[in-house]
Write a structure and sequence with these properties.
This protein has 365 residues and is an alpha/beta fold. The chain has helices at 31-42, 64-74, 89-95, 101-106, 126-129, 143-152, 172-179, 218-224, 266-282, 293-297, 313-329, 345-356, and strands at 20-23, 47-50, 55-60, 83-85, 114-119, 134-138, 156-157, 185-188, 199-202, 209-212, 259-264, 287-291, 305-308, 334-338, 361-364. The chain has a ten-stranded mixed beta sheet, with helices on both faces. A five-stranded parallel beta sheet has the order 13-12-14-11-15, with helices on both faces. Helix 1 (31-42) packs across helix 6 and helix 11 packs parallel to helix 12 (345-356). The protein is globular. The two termini are 33 Å apart. The structure holds threonylcarbamoyladenylate and magnesium ion. Threonylcarbamoyladenylate binds next to strand 5 and strand 6. Threonylcarbamoyladenylate is lined by residues 51, 53-54, 56, 80-83, 113, 115, 117, 129, 132, 134-136, 138, 158-160, 197-198, 200, 211, 245-248.
Length: 365
Amino acid sequence: MSVPFAWNLDASAAPPLQTEVLQVDPFAPSPAHLARAGAVIREGGLVAFPTETVYGLGAAALNPSAVRRIFIAKGRPSADPLIVHVANMAALERLTSGSSPWLTLLLPFWPGPLTVILPRASAVPLEVTAGLETVAVRMPAHPVALALLEAAGEPIAAPSANRFTRPSPTRASHVLEDLTGRFELLLDGGPTPHGLESSIVDCSGDRPRLLRHGAIPAEVLLDRLPELEVPDKPLLARPDAPMRAPGTQLKHYAPRAPVTLFLGAHVHTLSMLQAELTSALSLGLKVGVIGMQEALGALSAFPIETASLGGSLEEAGARLFDALRALDARQVSLIFCIGFPEQGLGRTLNDRLYRAAEGRVRVLD
Ligand code: TXA
Ligand code: MG
C-alpha cells in the first residue's frame, strides 16, 4: 500500500513531560478532575482516559499539532489513521459529510464499542485521517470518556494508549508502562470492561464492510445490518498479503516474548501444544501459556507460567491484553496461546492473538 500521508516523526524532539495521574470513580468521575482534563485537551495536550474497550490517548481532534503529538508519543506511523470520539450526534455531523443509509441501522450501538467510517468533513485535519477522505468516528459508552468529551467541549482523537505494536492497555498501569513522560495527564478509572477494541464498520462505500473484529461480535452486527460484508477469514489472511485497511498490519498487540497461537479442535490442539511444550522445556526455556481456565487445567503437570482467561468469552476479552503483559513481566522467553472457536467474540480474540503471534500459528482441523 502506498503511504498517502506522512511526516517526520521525531520523538527526540519532544522533551520528557511530567505525567500526572488522577484517580477517578469510573461511574461518577470528579467534576474537578474532568475540568482539569478538559482544559489539558483544549490547550493542545494529551490525556489518557478509560473507555469501555481499552484506554485511549486523546488530543483535540481538530487541532493538527495536538494530533501530531499522539503519533510521536506512541511511535505510531503517521499513515495509520485515528478514531475521533464524540459525545453527541451534532459532533458527528460536524466531522462527516453526506449521509449513509447504513449509519441509521448502526446507531442503536451508540454509545458503545462501534466505530463507523464515513466521508470526512473538511474540518477534520488530514493528520487524523492519515490523508484519507474518510474519518472513523465513535461515541464511547464509558462514563469517564463521555464526561471528558463534555468537559473538553470538542471531539477527541484517540488511538489505544500503548506504544505502537504493543498490546492495547486495559489498565492505567499498562498506559504508564508504555507512555510515562510522553503525555500530560492520565485519568485512572480502573480496568476497562470489554478489554477488546471497538468493532469498525466502513460505511463510506457501496456496501458496509467490517474492517476490524471488535467488542461487538460480527453476528450481532449482522442481525442489525444483514448487508454487512464480513471478510471471510481475516484471521488466516496470509502474512504477506497486501494490507486491506490502514492499521491492519500483522505485528500488533505483541508482547516482548514471541507468541505462538494454537488453533483448532480442542483435544488435538492441546496434544500438539503439549508436545511443543515438552520440547521447549527440555531446552530449559521458561514458557508462559495463555488460555481459558479449563484448557490450562489440562496442563497442570507442566512446570510453566500460566495466565488464565477465565471461563467465558467476555472474561477472556477483558483479560487478554493484561495476560500478554503479565507473562512479559514474569520474563518468559516464549508464550503459547490457546485460541478460540471462530464465532462470536472468539473471532475477535483470535484476531488479536494472530497479530500478537505475527503469523506464528499452528492450525489443526
Ligand atoms: O476501541 C477503540 O476503538 C479504541 C478506543 C480508544 O476507542 N481505539 C482504537 O484506536 O483502537 P486505534 O488507533 O488503536 O485503532 C484504530 C484503527 C486504525 O488502526 C485504523 O485501522 C482504523 O482504526 N481507522 C481509523 N480511521 C480509518 C479510516 N478512515 N479508514 C480505515 N480505517 C481507519
Ligand atoms: Mg491500537
